[in-house]
Design goal:
two-stranded antiparallel sheet, two-stranded antiparallel ribbon, mainly alpha, 17 helices, elongated
């Protein structure tokens, strides 16, 4: 039998497990919200952010004379353990709880309070010498602390988890663009043959897409650095020192090494989360680019005998339980599935962001979780795709040249010499009769063999010409 201790909150007494640091409000939430199991411990970002927030709040309150230095030091020591991940097991609550995140904020307050009490040699649950509300939550409300933690977690994850693997993938694709700079291949539009293009040019397009998307994510990142801290319940700052929010934000900047500010309008910071809607939308654009890239690569690699077959991909694992020797483009498939999940998360964030009523948006936890999941999924997928697919892509030159030789759209090079109508007739005749473009052109009598060889040069069709 698990032993318990009695904790109290404004609703009275409740038994909590004696071997955990959480308190009454956390225990009530565990019973009231058994909805799925995506907890905030997923990836740790929200728990770390809450630890950072409570530490920095204690530092600010001590500087402003709102807490004694002794109390602040105990809170800071306990919060540092939360930041380091030593107390992860003490944060069991799910995403689908109160829309303000009150229970998770109180979870942090209770854990830090009880751990601080233990450090001081007191009795857990006594609220002495550190009270979860009066001391750990001093100058705060869940309505400003939870959105502050959301922003801290998301900005931290963008900078310390997302950018590096996405940039590595981008650089690998850029190196492939250089490597493939002289390989002429069939261009395709509408899923039909088109004029020639360089394989390097194709890959340069992928690089440009990632660059564009990353610029958007970084712009959204900057806008997410304004924090709600100091707004307390409805944005007025009731019960907080006038300088608390600004001071706490400075400490958060120092703690994470990323620049944060107290928001210029705290009412908007509590009642709307447009900055996070912007972050999610930018992640959707990045996911869209990655889906395009992954889809292109798996189509170019399709076959190996009966598809396009112009690229070779690394062979990572067997592709079928029944067909011996089959190998599938699994990294491409994983990337495209991640993209669909990010699209879904963005729909959630967009709808949730529209639901601010009066002075508070009460969809905060699902917005935070959706953004954080998108960040982690994209980062992980880019890391795996770069390692197990992109860096090992090689061209199938025989197939590329075979397809190029059969490409009737090279006839476009004749437009300026014999006109569109005659060129179209040559292409249609070649397709109908199963002739090569060269054979059809010479049969037409509209040009000589020497003229055809001089005018229809695939490499010359991959750049502007007079």
């Amino acid at each position: 039998m698990t032993t318990t201790r009695t904790e109290t909150d404004s609703m009275g007494a409740i038994e909590v497990p004696a071997d955990h640091y959480w308190g009454a409000q956390t225990q009530r939430s565990l019973g009231n919200f058994e909805i799925g199991r995506p907890t905030f411990i997923w990836g740790r970002p929200m728990i770390k952010a809450l630890g950072v927030l409570k530490k920095c709040a204690a530092q600010a309150n001590a500087d402003l004379g709102q807490l004694t230095r002794e109390k602040a030091d105990l809170i800071i020591q306990a919060a540092d353990e939360v930041i380091a991940g030593k107390l992860d097991a003490e944060f069991p609550l799910v995403v689908f709880q109160t829309g303000s995140g009150t229970q998770t904020n109180m979870n942090a307050n209770e854990v830090i309070s009880n751990r601080a009490i233990e450090l001081a040699g007191g009795t857990m649950g006594s609220k002495k010498p550190i009270h979860p509300n009066d001391d750990v939550n001093r100058g705060q409300s869940s309505n400003d602390t939870f959105p502050t933690a959301m922003h801290l977690a998301i900005v931290d994850q963008l900078n310390n988890y997302l950018y590096a693997p996405v940039t590595t993938l981008r650089d690998t694709l850029a190196a492939k663009a250089d490597e493939f700079a002289d390989i002429v291949m069939v261009g395709r539009t509408h899923l039909q043959d088109a004029t020639p293009v360089l394989l390097g040019q194709v890959f340069s397009g992928y690089v440009a897409q990632i660059d564009f998307a990353l610029e958007g994510v970084k712009a959204a990142d900057v806008r997410a650095r304004d924090l709600a801290i100091g707004g307390t319940a409805v944005g007025t700052g009731l019960n907080a020192h006038p300088d608390f929010g600004r001071t706490a934000a400075k400490y958060m900047t120092d703690e994470l090494g990323l620049q944060f500010h107290q928001a210029s309008n705290l009412f908007a910071s509590l009642s709307a989360h447009d900055a996070l809607v912007g972050v999610s939308a930018s992640l959707r654009v990045l996911a869209m680019a990655l889906m395009k890239i992954a889809n292109d690569i798996r189509w170019y690699a399709s076959g190996p005998r009966n598809g396009i077959g112009e690229l070779h991909l690394p062979e990572n694992e067997p592709g079928s339980s029944i067909m011996p020797g089959k190998v599938n483009p699994t990294q491409c498939e994983a990337m495209t599935m991640v993209a669909t999940r990010v699209f879904g998360n963005d729909a959630t964030v967009g709808f949730a962001g529209s639901q601010g009523n009066f002075q508070l948006n009460v969809f905060k936890p699902v917005m935070a979780w959706s953004c954080l999941e998108s960040i982690q999924l994209i980062a992980d997928a880019c890391r795996m795709f770069e390692l197990h697919c992109a860096r090992g892509i090689t061209p199938n030159l025989d197939k590329i040249n075979e397809n190029l030789d059969k490409n009737l759209m090279q006839v476009t090079a004749l437009n300026r010499h014999i006109g569109y109508d005659k060129a179209a007739a040559i292409a249609k005749h070649a397709n109908k009769e199963g002739l090569s473009l060269r054979e059809s052109a010479l049969e037409s009598g509209d040009l000589t063999e020497a003229e055809f060889d001089a005018w229809v040069v695939p490499a010359d069709m991959t750049h502007p010409s007079a």
